[in-house]
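Give me the fold.
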Amino acid sequence: MHIRSLYRYAVKGLSGDSIETVTLQEGDGTFEDDRRFALMYANSSGDEDFDEDNPQWLHKDNFLCAFTAPELLATLRSEYNVESVDGRRLLTVWNRNDKTESSSTPLLLADLACQAGRDETSKFFSELCGKKVVCVCASDSGKHTHQFGNTSSGVKNNEGDTRTIHIVNSNTVKQLSDVIQHELQQQYNLEIDGSDNRIESIQLNPTRFRPNVVVDGLDPWSEFDLIGKSIEVIPNRGHDGDDTESTPIRFRITSRTVRCAGIGVDPLQPELKTLDIAKLLTKHFPQHGPYLGVYAVMEDRNFGEICVGDTFRVVDESDE
């Protein structure tokens, strides 16, 4: 399996950042700051039901996210950067229709590393959605011990740990796209002045499925055969870095990823409007049901770097 791209989603439901390299510290459990922050709906008394000192898994309908407000969040584009000098965690949000990002004034620029920045973020999104939301942080202590993501079954498969890495096979997405071409063309094709605007092929973006890792070089759906197995990172010696031998970074594939309404809208393909991906998967691939992608968890002894261009190798049981 070849690692084609890497992504981090610092704030649950907002845009992912494409990254070339991920540094995994011992005990991290997932990519740095991945889904570390979330926009939680306040309860009837105006407070958030979340204890930052003792975070627990919560269903996604408790949050302003792609599941609860896909069309609204698709109008935004965001970027998250960790400043190495002063430790600021800067969230920048633009209107997605504004194509001049480098020179435009952002809708929001906030430092999520401090409470004032999170309060500013809460105010912005509350005004945007018309409901009170609170920007919550899974941990303010430096260690990334809780992740706003995963499913209840995924957490159970990981012994209660919410931290995972989501892997999507680009060839599975391509086969899905090819099989549902009729539905995609129906969404895309509108007659203008009596002419047919049919294009030859429409391909779904793997990023629609909000992966941390997109892989290729794997047969469609064969990632499901890896559940229960371990994979390890084989570095691409072409990229800069220390070539000394080290213990390979290993992950264990734990479960398939069930798909929900949160991936029905892809802001990168607005012409497709809303797609019921779970229904399409079940209709055309009943042997797999509404699943696409797999969850992986870091094995205890892991730390190091993963880079675009590296590969995954399935660990043979005899290697253990």
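The longest strand covers residues 250-258.
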